[in-house]
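agent> fetching stored inputs for the zinc ion docking request
agent> found them:
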Amino acid sequence: MILCSALLAGCVRDPPPDLASPGISLELARHRAATVADLRYEIDLSVPEERLEPLIGTVTLRFRWNDPARLPFVVDMQEPQDRIDEVEVNGELVPDLEYRNNHVVISADLLRTDDENEVVIRMRAGDGPLNRQESFLYTLFVPDRAHHALPVLDQPDLKARVSLSLEIPAGWEAVANGRRVADEELGQGRRRLVFAETQPISTYLIAFAVGAWQRIEGEVAGRSITLYHRETDADRVAANVDRIFELHGTALEWLETYTDIPYPFDDFEIVAVPSFQYSGMEHPGAIYYRAASLFLEPSATQAQLLGRASVIAHETTHMWFGDLVTMRWFDDVWTKEVFANFYAAKIVNPAFPDLEHDLRFFLAHHPAAYGVDRSRGANPIRQPLDNLAEAGSLYGPIIYQKAPIVMRQLERLLGEGRFQEGMRRYLERFAFANASWPELIEILDPLAEIDLAAWSRVWVELPGRPVVDVVREAGDEDLRWRLELRDPQGVPAGTTAGEARVWAQTLDPVVGLGGEVLPLAEVDLGPSRVHLAPALAREGPSEWLLPDGGGYGYALFRLDPESREALLEWIPHLEAPLHRASAIFILWDAILEGELPPARLLDRLLERIAGETEEQLLSHLLGILDTTYWLFLSPDDRQAWAPRVEEALVERLRGAERATVKATVFRALRNVALTPEAVGIVRGVWAGERAFPNLTLGEDDRTSTAFALALREVDGWEDVLEGEEALIEDPDRLERFRFLRPSVDADPDVRERFFESLRERENRSREPWVRTGLAHLNHPLRADHGLRFLRPALELLEEIQRTGDIFFPQDWIGATLAGHASPEAVAVVEVFLAARPDYPPRLRQKILQAVDVTERAARVQGGGP
Ligand SMILES: [Zn+2]
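agent> prediction call returned; pasting tokens
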């Protein structure tokens, strides 16, 4: 031990860190995690019926504390000066409360070392994360919003046991993390619900939803389950509820078997939230879902059925991955999302036995991940984070889509058995605690033959995807292809120059030769730059190599010109749907790179729309068709293509097929319809005057169709909207319709007023509605007028990030830019960013990601490379 005194030269004490700086700094979080233990919250709240009245109550923190530095104890609370009435520490009222930067600062002198401390805070809850509506509310605290409502230590690695007591209007219901243990009538129209103390959970997982909810009880996997909802269409509920329960049961059983750990929490309850911001949120004991994703309409597409199964499997997986074992800090938030998606893909398989699951994995992950990784705003999977206030900006397709692709490669490297063994060790070792990615790598490393830390540096810590060039070498007698691996920065892999990265991955190439499709042996792309496929005897003219027939690879694959031409012809003859998908997405990349004229692929797509039997692939083909049609064709070319595109879709509607296919194709037709004939057909279907076999429109579908007709300014579009509004019975859906109606109005002034209204935070509270409204304002048919919204939308983005939930910044800017393909739109974004060199880097990335397709489309339309 060295005694240090400020009087001794050369021994200068650092000033104590300012733990109460704005937000939740990494420094504060680390300090608290090291000094606080055995944390418990007792939360006692009174919920008024009136939306504008505050929730009043008490939050009691109990914990052990040992801080040798005796720094002040910091509790996080947004605007404490307006919300806190009094604070008692260990039985003593604190006379002069210190508030700093949305923290309550408590002197160390009031605390007891190595003994239980009790801090009682009487306060009014902040409304921000309470999502208050007229007759219900629900908390949403992820990632750092718990302290916007309640005084807590708001960081994921201070897990706490939470006891909750809610006094609510007698006619209302409440659901929370813990099991309900008491229900007491208080008289005067009030009642108190008490929930049992939970297992240790992170603050972002604390949840309660209160209001006029209906309850349905059921049983899954030997456990009782309760569903809370507000759906008014009883048929719609009845048609879905059994399947919703069953999907949860399947997921729970799968996970219990795989992890060898029983469901870790007491209660299993789910809440169907109208217009919920996310598809789902994994609060233990109170999982939330977007109601429309659970209660599907009879006209649901296969993609919606699969989406529902996936989100249920995703949230259920979080009970182990995320809730039982949680990241230490939000830089590793991807570790919970990657496993949720990775295992969801496995869990969903048995529920859809007819589906090709490798294809499904590919379609669910690769296109979205490539969408970011090919942009100038690509971000790595793991991103450093200094302050929780910025945690929301970490989310996106790299976490949700690229990370599972990378994890699947890791599973292939280790073998499924060893991978599973590693995950069991991880869950067992960190149960009800926290772990970082390096701590997981440490567990997996002894199970792997490669250097996992080096592998992680390339795939997890750095952005982008490698380039794999396919090079053809043909002699008179034989033929072979070289696969050349390049770093995205142009540095060849395996060279010693610069930061050459080794993008280790295994590919499953297939070749077309003499009229047959032949799989080749796996190719391990390792440190050397060039990899040879075996030489083959030449047999016929249509010879091509598809570098990744298995859907495991992750790269920009650039075909040799012969393979590209041959594959364009061969797509219909590729029997394996995954081969067709792989070929089409490689060709789509070629369009985006300016190497293939869009019309070449469009021709092929129209043929596939007629003949594609794999429904999930069809729906992605229609997506590519839509983007190509609206963004990559000039308005004149689009007009010229319209009759052929529409006819292909109408033709497919005429056939006798499954309802899910019909719903998908009709939506595509509604989205592209331009000629009076096609618009007339869409209108006829909406009005119930035109029928196709097996095609039915649910309420949501009908509403979207009415909006599509208004966007096209059909004769009497106002009557169409009037008629639609009159048919909507559900109050939540009616409110949505009324909100969105001005966004499709033919009068530009009405649309401008709609946009102006979004400057008010209050008008942005229903984020999915706002996203749809922005898409209407900036629809390609109205992109010229929409240009005026680009700059103000960009200017609002920082505020959107501050005030909105985690996906809102990317949704906001994505919906704004998605309809634009003009050089003018690109210029607005460029000027905006150029004028702001100090703009928050992660938000800049989001803008660059969102503008990527716009930039590429403008280049292609301009005839540039
Ligand atoms: Zn998740």
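agent> quick read of the result: The chain is about 45% helix and 20% strand.
agent> awaiting further instructions
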